[in-house]
Amino acid sequence: MAPPIGNERDTTGTTRRSLLAGVAALGALGAAGCSRVATASTTEGGDLLERLKAAGVVRLGIAGEIPFGYIDKNGELTGEAPELARVIFKRLGVDRVQPVPSEFGSLIPGLKSQVFDVVAAGMYVNPDRCEQVIFADPDYQMLDAFIVRKGNPKGLHDYKDVVEKKAKFATGTGYAEIQYAVEAGYKESDILIVPDQVAGLNAVEAGRVDVFAGTALTTREVVKKSSKAESTKAFAPLVKGKPHVDGGAFAFRPTETRLRDAFNVELHKLKKSGELFRILQPFGFTKAEMTDLTAKELCAGGTG
């Protein structure tokens, strides 16, 4: 669930990170999956797909964030990205997926150092990240939303409201929302940075902040059981003065263009048939989050 700051959704990756009761299970599976993958090939376009077929397994870098990629209460890997990976890699001749848990900010470094084969964490595509990795086309698009106290007493509906009403503002580590708030005029040093949307919800409920910013999907999911907080209507943040829509996608090492291209072929088949929506819908995605955005336009700084 964005642009510039670090690694993911964040502004270089904004992020999302761990939510879940299965953190212990996440660690256990991580231990089994953290040995490094084979050294990258010098073959034109890479030969990783052939090596994955031979091994019968692909290692997925995940960040433990619901609903993008996480370990559930039964210790099973799930989330929109892992479930989509299962379908696509099966079609590519790779029968199994294996999770390699990581901090969100460590996903791109882990991919580049070959700790895993692909990032499957719903990572936002943005120009900063595109300088480090290559992306498949987005499998979803996303707007922002706020977590606020019930009734939204301060009337906070976008970043401009947060600045004008001098609201106490929080967002997640490496989230793209940091830059969106700064662009609207919020002082970065005044932003409360918390680990994830659960911590953001807690901060709002406790009155430590007036608002937590995240993706529309994660905010609406996390407030479902809250009696003290609610999610605002989704909105497009402004980037360079224009409304901006983010798109999340799988990331690959720059040398592995053949694997990325093969992945894209299957992804577009799923989009055309409607199967992509059926895969993502159980994780809270709606048809409004389906997209025809391309990695190329997002890497170029679209879409405003």
Count every helix, treating DSSP H or I runs of 4 or more residues as helices: 12
In whole angstroms, how far apart are the ends? 18 Å
Radius of gyration: 18 Å
The portion of residues assigned to helices is 25-40%
Catalogue the unreliable spans: 1-38
Number of strands: 17
Describe the largest sheet.
6 strands, mixed
Overall form: globular
Beta-strand share of residues: 15-25%
Task: Tell me the structural class.
Answer: alpha/beta
On the 0 to 100 scale, the average pLDDT is: 87
- What is the element string, with H for helices and E for strands? EEHHEEEHEHEHEEEHEHEHEHEEEEHHH
How would you summarize what this structure contains?
By secondary structure, the protein is of the alpha/beta class. It is built from 12 helices and 17 strands.
Fold and architecture overview:
The strands form five sheets. Strands 3, 6, 7, 8, 9 and 17 form a six-stranded mixed β-sheet that branches. Strands 12-11-13-10-14 form a five-stranded mixed β-sheet. It has a two-stranded parallel ribbon with strand order 1-2. The longest helix is centred in the last third of the chain and has 17 residues. A hairpin with a 2-residue loop joins strand 15 and strand 16. Helices cover 32% and strands 21% of the residues. It has 304 residues and is of the alpha/beta class.
List the helices and strands and how they pair.
Layout: E1 8-9, E2 13-14, H1 23-33, H2 48-55, E3 57-62, E4 70-71, E5 77-78, H3 80-91, E6 96-101, H4 107-112, E7 118-124, H5 127-130, E8 134-135, E9 140-142, E10 144-149, H6 159-164, E11 169-172, H7 177-183, E12 192-194, H8 197-205, E13 211-215, H9 216-222, E14 229-231, E15 238-239, E16 242-243, E17 246-252, H10 257-273, H11 275-280, H12 295-299
Parallel strand pairs: 1-2, 3-6, 3-7, 11-12, 11-13
Antiparallel strand pairs: 4-5, 7-17, 8-17, 9-17, 10-13, 10-14, 15-16
Pfam families: SBP_bac_3 (PF00497)
Keywords: Signal
Protein name: Ectoine/hydroxyectoine ABC transporter substrate-binding protein EhuB
